[in-house]
Amino acid sequence: MNRRKFLSAATAAAAGVPLLLGNAVAADDDLPARVRRYLDRALAAGSPSAVCGVIQGARRYVAGAGGSRGTSAPDGRTVFQLGSIAKTFTATALARAVRAGETRLDAPLVLPARFPVPRKGPRRITMVDLATHTSGLPSLPPNLLAGADPYDPYAHYTLDGLAAGLRETTLSTEPGSSHAYSNLGFGLLGQALAFDDVDAMLRRRVTSPLRMPDTTTTLRPDMASRKAVGHLEGQPVPDWHDPVLSAAGTSMYSTADDMLRFLGAQLRPDRSPLRDAIELTQRPHFTVDRNLRLGLGWHLSPLTSGRTMTWHNGGTGGFSTCAAFSRRSQTAAVMMVNTASEATTTGPRPVDALTHALLDELDAA
What CATH number does the domain containing 45 carry? Predict the structure, then answer.
């Protein structure tokens, strides 16, 4: 087991990277065969098991596949750790608060007095800065990894630790000026919305209204019996736990069935109880370059067709995930695998490349 590699996942897991897609080829086969082809590719890339869910117009389909080592195939109710896709839940909660008049996107970040908010230049960090990774905050608090368990790197961190870490934190850029992915920023966004009650707030404002019962940071007994075992480099590893920065998605669980409900709401906000908030999250709020704009939580990149792909990926020490959709073509895809992986200097993580390519194919069909 590569201890350094595992710790690096805590720093870099699911950082948003725009992908340039190649030309999609619309397959002539039916949807199950198409999904099966992508599942086979996920297994070939080293995943012990994989599950994939798609939406194509009015049709929804979920299938899973297990590897050759006797791993059973997951299904739509199999529980995976979700990782940073859950940042889009936190962003949705922010959007609900904005629509309700409880805060503003340009409101400054405010925390209890013992949590000093770093400053650089005349402009304070705002809520929209946190939701678009333009706050200037580092990826993690500077004191988080000191003494951390490499197999569960957030579990030891406390509110006292966060207060001390913020006193040591400096901003790399002035708020609102440039993009740098930050788990710390989204963790602080959750604390600003519901101090020390983040997980309950996300259930109340996002997952419960969207009927996502298995999307939670706390495993119920029935969920534990359905949970996939996470892996790193072929070896089983424990789940991540996070009592402080969970709004960044570091300890969230979900299923393909729940994620299709979430993606369905993204495709048809008019049929969702969170319509106004969802529309606000999908609106571009910051432009990085021609291949990447940022909504609240969401990344916006072009598909081969020229339509917009809205997406986010996720990862913990033993799981990798990606979700993407196209409003224009009413298509969506989510893939969840029970192994950790990282982007390389030559390409993205396999789960990201596969999910984006599948959506590109569905969009072109």
Answer: 3.40.710.10
Q: What is the largest CA-CA distance in the chain?
A: 61
Helix or strand (DSSP H, E) at 187? helix 183-193
The DSSP 8-state label assigned to residue 8 in this structure reads H
Task: Give the three-class secondary structure for 92.
Answer: helix
Amino acid at 323: A
CA 217 centroid distance within chain: 14
Q: What is the pLDDT of residues 34-71, one digit of tens each?
A: 999 999 999 999 999 999 999 999 999 999 999 766 66
Q: Cβ neighbours of residue 78 under 8 Å, at least 6 residues apart?
A: 51, 64, 226, 227, 228, 255, 256
Q: What is the pLDDT, as a whole number, of residue 28?
A: 46
Provide mean pLDDT across the span 122-136. 98
Q: In Å, how far are 19, 56, 323 from 365, measured between CA atoms?
A: 20, 9, 19
pLDDT in tens, 261-273: 999 999 999 999 9
115: which residues sit within 8 A by CB, 6+ positions away? 162, 163, 166, 191
Kindly state the average pLDDT of the residues 79-108.
Answer: 98
Helix (H, G, I), strand (E, B) or coil at 294: strand
Phi/psi region, residue 70 (left: phi>0; alpha: psi -120 to 50; beta: rest), is left
Distance CA 57, CA 62 (A): 14
DSSP string, 212-280: -TT-BSS--HHHHTTBPPPEETTEE-PPP--SSSGGGTTT-EE-HHHHHHHHHHHH-GGGSTTHHHHHH
Predicted TM-score (pTM) of this structure: 0.94
Nearest Cα to Cα of residue 237 among 25, 16, 48, 39: 48
Q: Which domain holds residue 112?
A: 3-15+22-364
Mean pLDDT over 149-169 rounds to 97
Partners of 152 in beta bridges: 149
The residue whose two tokens read 């020229």 is 306
Q: Is the Cβ–Cβ distance between 340 and 317 less than 8 Å?
A: yes
Domain count of the fold of the chain: 1
* H or E element at residue 336: strand 331-337
Length of the chain: 365
* β partners of residue 300: 293, 310
Question: What is the spatial distance between Cα 65 and Cα 50, in angstroms, rounded to a whole number?
Answer: 5
